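Standup notes
- DV: blocked on the single-chain target, sequence here:
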Amino acid sequence: MKILVRLISVFLIHGMSVAQFAIPTFQAASSVDRTSPRITITATDGSNAVANGSTTNDNTLTITFTSNETTSNFIVSDIGVVGGSISSFSGSDQVYTATFTPSSNRLTKIYIPTGAFTDGMNNNNYASEIFEWTYDNSAPTIVSGTTMASDNSTITVKFSETVFNSSSGIGSLEVADFSFALLVPMSGNPAALSSSTPSSITKGVPTFSDNTIDADLNGAISIFASDLDQDGDVDVIGCSSQGSNLVWYQNNGSQSFTKYTIDASLAGAREAIAKDLDRDGDMDIIAIAGDGDKLCWYDNNGSQSFTKTTIDASIEDPRGIDAADLDGDNDVDIILDAYTEDVLVWYENNGFESFTKNTIVSDAGFRPFSVDLDEDGDMDIVTSDMSSDELLWFENDGAASFTERSIDGSIDNPRGVSVADLDEDGDLDIVTVSFDDDDVVWYANNGSESFTKSTIDADLDGAFDASIADIDNDGDLDIAAVGQYADDVVWYANNGSESFTKYTIESNIDKPYRIQIADVDLDGDLDILSHGYNDDDVAWYQNVDGGYDLGVSLSGTAIGTEVLTVSPASNSIYDAGGNVASTSQSYNTAYLNDKTGPTMTITAANASGTAVSDGATTSDNYLVVTFTSNETTTNFALADISVSGGSMASFSGSGTTYTANFTPSSNGATTIDVAGSTFTDASGNDNSAATQFNWTFDSGAPTISGTSIASDNSTISVTFNETVYNTNGGSGSLQTSDFSLALSSGLSTLSSSTPSSISQSSNTYTLGVSLSGVASADQVITVTPVSNQIYDIYGSVASTSQSNNTVNLIDKNYTLTLNGSNEYAYYADDSNFEPSTWSIQAWIDPSAVPSNSDNDFFIHKNKTYRIGLEYTASGVEIMGSLRYNGTYYNVNSGDQSFYITSGGGWYHVIMTFDGTNLILYVNGDEKDTNSNSNYSTTNQNGVFSIGRRHDTSSLYYNGIIDEVAFWNTALSANAVSSLYNSGSGLNALLTSGNYSSTSALVMYLRMQQNLDDSDASYDFTGSGINSGNYNADPID
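- DV (later): unblocked, structure below
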């Protein structure tokens, strides 16, 4: 409350009222007494003093009038009052008393005008200081607008006036000042209060509504808010620069303004302020203009009829004015800056409104602000100086002699200035703006008039004016400002620690110059006034109080029918007059917001109306599906339903019940879903996901949907489109006798048309196949249900005529047989067989092995590498070599005592080279390694030969060879093991296990048949080395 009182005091000095100082009317000269008497006005409520400027709820005040000397003709009619009446007047000599009764809740004034009485020597009195008191006997109430936050986390309450938590009008409200109660319905699952005391309290941020006072003030350049007609509300004075008009707008108390012209010929009107310059109890006007009568004042006769007097017609380009008693002689002097002359001057009032001009300083001034900055009892001056980019203050020594003090010497083109105790540390701080830098800044006073600068905003384009007040009624001082280029009216909310949040009030008022703060609508909070020079507007922005946001702690989820009541705690909430808020209030309830989302239940019936349960299987051609919500919804639509295995149509319904027809697209499982967050209830809560509805449609006999053969042709797998049984009652597992097998002619034949075995996994049956002979890929095996043996759950029998029931046998005759004397195959020399790293594979089944010191080679590249069979004393080993610089580097299976024999079956051989290591693998195991960093296989010309040593046309291999492959990378041991696959080699073209087929596979020969004896050799060169496959027709 201390802050609020101080703000009111500052505002009244600069706006609505000022101490009244009477002009002495001197009588005939007397050698005895030429001093005029002066009365001091004080008040009590009967027991306690009531301070000037305070607010109380006393029905009457006892007023004491104390003269500084004896008077015999002071009477009740000498007393001037506004907003009340005087009675029970009595007293004599120097002390008089009276009872003051206010006429209504309002600001009242009591004063003694100049010349109302005389002393014993007939000297007329000076005007007294005005005693101001606000009468308020109405308790604060909660007004309409109590609302719940959308998430029910807070409830907002607003009061009819500014409130405090003590009867002395100080202290911010706390959570303990409120009480909650929750009325819950008898049904449903409502939320409950976790605590009847708010969990938190925050003063809400106010909003502002735009109200036009005048849209036709030509070149509106300044405004000033003041109670010009002394009727207790805020009027507005305006200057029209282009229209040369000085006007005022009379407020009728309901914020309807009537425009009156004070002066229609104030050429270049620039600024006007209201002061009781002649101390007669009414508000006069002081104005400056760019041309003609450049400084003048307008004497108010008490009925707002004004008489103009020019004070100075020669001052060049005045820009700013203020008024205060600078010399301490109890009259009102005037401060003015002149931009063109670049001077700051003051005009000394001699008590008769005759003025003497005095220069304070040359080269300074733009917007003077009079204030006792150093709090030594006299009025100092704070001003911005746009020409020198300075913020200055001028210390008054008490006799109107001023000493210039610099606050900031580097603020770019400063403009408007405002002063108040922004940080609440007991001294006065300063706010100003930088027009060129777009800054709003404040200067913290350390108590000794040493200032620290802080930037509040660096982005108010063309910042021009600022003012300080508690705009949001939270007990600290905020700032309002205007930006000319931005066309903005903004305010900055102080969080109590001088951290400011910017809010825009208006962003479309064209070129504002001035900002004013006043309670225009008398609702206890401060409104904002401004104007637009280019659009000729005068506007006020109504402060819509943000109220108090009280934290609400709930358990459970609100269903929307609970009612929360918020009440002031007993004797806890007061207004400035000490009136306490009642615990019984209107407008203090709000429904909780429904936060429970709707749920949807899905049910179905067939065309006859018979219910079809979730998870059922039927042969109905379609289902009628019903969607039932637990609460009304208006936006549930067909698109909110998702289905699989069919489609929805014929959607209809409203409120809580909707239906649609679901038609399956084919036999099989279907689903119907309503996903979460697809529709809402009336409160906008998203639905939760419905439980999925499952239905299987089955309209026909079971069929085979797929068939596959094992790689060794030992089993055939058949898959049915649905679950099947071997009885028409939906029971019994299938047996081998339920199937019949047939095989097309070829090298192999079926040993039995009945499967040799059967196993089941879901709807797939694996049937054992008994073959004799060698399987050929051109042979087709067919599996057929035996007549009247296989059924679905509904008794439909599988037909003996099926699709998808055939598969080709896996060809097991992929080998190349070489006779050991003159048969071989080869590729011509190719750099693809000479990479820096490589791997070579072959499957071999030798028909004969070397019996002497010779070697039989099955892979050979001249002067590069070779793989073959080598005779040793211990046995025949598989050997490999890499030739480099004429020397062979060998790897041998005999190093691990691994030897082979003719007729010993298939051997899987891979030799790899990684640029250093030459490794031999047999049957998936590493047999030998030879390492040398000098190895190289590049740029070695030679034929890639299969079945002999190519350069000598000798050392032929005798036996079967298959799956010859070449990679341009060294395969890992894991990949080699995977390719061996425990003796059932993998297809090198396919990825499986630890082996991945990539572009590194250069060549892959899968032999189809033997070489004919008439063609001892075969050139594979033309078969496409990069295709990775050799599948030639029979060779003749």
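- Follow-up: The chain is about 0% helix and 45% strand.
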